[in-house]
Amino acid sequence: MKIWEEEKQSYIRAAMERNSAEENRRLKEELDAVDWSVLEHIYRKETVNERGVFAPLSAVERAEIESRREEFLALGTDAVRAGKVGAVLLAGGQGTRLGLDRPKGTLNIGISRELYLFEQLICNLKEVTDAAGAFVPLYIMTSHINDHDTQEFFAEHAYFGYPKEYVKFFTQELEPACDYEGRVYMESATKPAMSPNGNGGWFGSMVKAGLLADLKEKGIEWINVFAVDNCLQRIADPLFVGATIAYGCQSGAKVVKKAAPDEKIGVLCTEDGRPSIAEYYEMTEEMATARKENGDLLYGYGVILNYLFSEEKLEEIADARMPVHVVEKKIPYLDTDGSHAKPDAPNGYKFETLVLDMVHMMDDCVPFEVEREREFAPIKNLHGVDSLDTARELLAGCGIAL
Ligand code: UTP
Predict the structure, then answer these.
(1) Which residues contact 197 (CB under 8 A, 6 or more apart)?
(2) Is the CB of 225 under 6 A from ligand 1?
(3) For the chain, how long is the longest CA-to-CA vector?
(4) Is the torsion defined by CA of 114, 120, 122, 128 positive or negative?
(5) pLDDT at site 133
(6) Which helix (H) or strand (E) holds 236?
(7) Alpha-carbon span 143 to 103, nearest angstrom
(8) How far apart are alpha carbons 119 and 383 in whole angstroms?
(9) CA distance 268 to 56
């Protein structure tokens, strides 16, 4: 049965009743191109993430990092200089909490001068490449929704001084969005509402875009994946790369010490003996508050969406299925009466795979502690927690003129 033949699909059917024959021909073409099986995840959303047994995983703490600084730095810098390190900027999200209608990275975080989020990230990367005397290939993941604007923004600003030949863009795929009953929302008369399929598919999308050959040709052995919204992000950090190499691990995750037992941050731990991330809402009260003998939290280190993966291992797991998370979001849509609705509270589901699930596919992972005030300033909202306001304070605290 075609999706538009299903009685319950009221948004699609109402649009079809209003549309001209030509509009319906176009709409059907769009609808036929979608794999609707993703909607079934709504009925499995409670079990999609059924977990094994969690256990604590000790972090490589800052004192240890300091004591081995020279060794880590030398190993990491050698890897950067030898062209073995690539970076992937995850910029395909829609940033609905921030409410921008353009790519998040184009946000001006400056106060008395223009300083764009993308610009600050490139600035952070340049600190590493200047010190190493070598450039790091940067791959930027966009979605079909923001690809054009992102590429144009980089071109307009001359790549913020980073050499263009070291920057490549690729797009991630989209999935349909629906209401809580599984009724697919419409974006316009001829298009269903589609949204990016999460940040977990980045490697698959790179492969699809033909970039595997590029990674191989360049001899990239390590890929540093990071989020667009942390303006204090250290990218291709030689210390982190060096530590992961020194520990002989397939991956590393930058972590910060949890600020409080109930802080809303995913915690790096093990699950059935493999590295894993327990989301804050998956932690029992007992897990969240358990302490070590020295008083530190047992599950005490949260991830900041900055991971290092071995390229070889990524290829090995490239075809593995990842869990699909059913996420509640605000979805603008065309109502059954033909009016446009822009909700200010979540009104339905999007379907996403998450990069944090990749960590569980690795045999091991180095939890690498970084200083929160120096490396973690996420911008999820305009004001309040994890916002432009808090990020500006943190940037100023690091001596960055705004
Ligand atoms: P978030 O989980 O904060 O999602 O993304 P978001 O879509 O940007 O924002 P909200 O939740 O709608 O407010 C974390 C990182 O993952 C990227 C984002 O661009 C950000 O760097 N991401 C997210 C993608 O690249 N693709 C996606 O489909 C989702």
Answers:
(1) 172, 173, 174, 175, 351, 352, 353
(2) no
(3) 72
(4) positive
(5) 98
(6) none
(7) 10
(8) 21
(9) 8
| Helices assigned H by DSSP within 225-284 | 238-246
Nearest to 141 by CA among 172, 173, 104: 172
* Distance from C-alpha of 241 to C-alpha of 211, rounded to nearest angstrom: 22
Q: CB count, 10 Å around CB of 363?
A: 12
> How much distance in Å is there from the Cα of 40 to the middle of ligand 1?
23
d(CA 3, CA 199): 27
Q: Provide the 8-state DSSP code for 282.
A: G
Q: Are 299 and 267 in contact (CB under 8 A)?
A: yes
Please tell me the distance between residue 91's alpha carbon and the centre of ligand 1 in angstroms.
Answer: 7
Instruction: Give the confidence band of 46 by pLDDT, cuts at 50, 70, 90.
Output: confident
pLDDT category at 48 given cuts 50, 70, 90 is: low
Q: How far apart are the first and last CA of the chain?
A: 57
CA 323 to chain centroid, in Å, comes to 15
> Burial level of 10, CB count in 10 A (0-12/13-18/19+)?
middle
Backbone angles phi, psi at 335, to 5 degrees: -75, 170
Residues in the chain: 402
- Between CA 380 and CA 98 the distance in angstroms is 6
By most ligand atoms within 8 Å of CB, the mutation choice from 174, 229, 329 for ligand 1 is 229
DSSP string, 148-192: HHHHHHHHHTGGGGS-GGGEEEEEE-EEE-B-TTSPBPEEETTEE
pLDDT at 257: 97
DSSP 288-356: HH-B-TTS-BTT-EEEEEEEEEEHHHHHHHTTS--PPEEEEE---EE-TTS-EE--SS--EEEEE--TH
96 within ligand 1 shell (Cβ under 6 A): yes
- The span from the CA of 373 to the CA of 93, in Å, is 25
pLDDT at 355 over 80: yes
The position carrying tokens 């790549």 is 159
Token pair of 125 as six digits:
């990367």
Q: Residues 352, 354, 360, CA angle at the centre, nearest 5°?
A: 140
Structure tokens at 393: 């304070």
Regarding the beta carbon of 325 and ligand 1, being less than 6 Å apart is answered no
Cα torsion 318, 320, 323, 329 to 10°: value is 30
Helix H or strand E encompassing 61: none
Ligand 1 within 6 A of CB of 145 = no
